[in-house]
């Protein structure tokens, strides 16, 4: 759990770093989603966001710095529970500020922090552990650990349940269609794409891995062995995804989520392998070695920690907390199974307020129920006063309708890729003029750029077809704005 704490904190810092490169574009009133548009079009009244206090980039920058500070505190294990709560609040606030760039990994990262509030993941390998004797046991069972394990299982089981299209269950063509999407195709995917039978076999393997592998988490015997198998298989699974599909931080977040499942024997083995190297590094830093034992996981228990005597009535508080957590576990399971189970068991809207308020709402519909077929690429076509056409999506190059070699490489990061995906949907047509005007404003900020009369957001739609057929790209103008 301590290893997971550090991994989650590192991912939060990485996420903040990537998001900060689009501070103005995604989180200010000068960007693609001003506050008044957010409240009018994409806001849930149950949600909260500290980032909504201002549309100025300076305020957003301060909030980013505060969130980074809390994440560093969590990484070091300094006042761990407080840092976990503050990191969770800032993450929820940030995600609520712009839901149009959210992806499935954000749900998982948010839930890891939520359950982490109740986990003892600051007990070892932390600043808080300095001066404390080693735990009597490195095995811990509570409602919080049940919630964490159930949460990991739900991620995979529910995405398998939602993948009910024939391309997943019978045809085995889902990976073929996924790799047909140039928007997310990575170099490893290009190597795999010509091998249809291998992709068909991998499709079935993916489906049944997600559906059946979580059973290993609940086998009451050989727990260390089965959980190690679970972690190794899913590490390999997500490495494969990261090499073939552009999924942003999704695979890194999943890596972090699996750290808490590593059993003590595995960590002891790692410590024996890495211990000498750690000691050599500590020797170079002079004096650090004296402080290191409080931060590392001892191989053997050196002391027994005895809690202070508590008043008889004090025991009711842990019991109440455990009861509440088990209720939350049931609520989370119900939320996930909603839409999968029979309609008569669907969660009613009045009961959903908690999920929206505390952002325990989640949906694991990755490439479900079927793989998206409307592939293509963008051209931001600026019509200049001199009659020339400039592509603002490619730094003002002359417009070309020829398909680029790598469509995925056109996206600055996965946040923009997700934004461009949401931009296509008819239900999100309200997004289009704000992006169009944002691109126009950026263009005219540079005095060397010729003035534009009109800007067209063009999508070159290329529908994915079976059997390696190639469709003719169709030019679709999603939005036009005059300057």
UniProtKB/TrEMBL annotation:
InterPro entries: HTTM-like, Sporulation_signal_mat. GO terms for cellular component: endomembrane system. Its main location: membrane. Residues 1-266 form the HTTM-like domain. Keywords: Membrane, Transmembrane, Transmembrane helix. It is found in: Endomembrane system. It is a multi-pass membrane protein. The keyword Nucleus does not apply. It comes from the Bacteria. The chain crosses the membrane at residues 57-78, 108-126, 138-162, 174-193, 213-236. This is HTTM-like domain-containing protein.
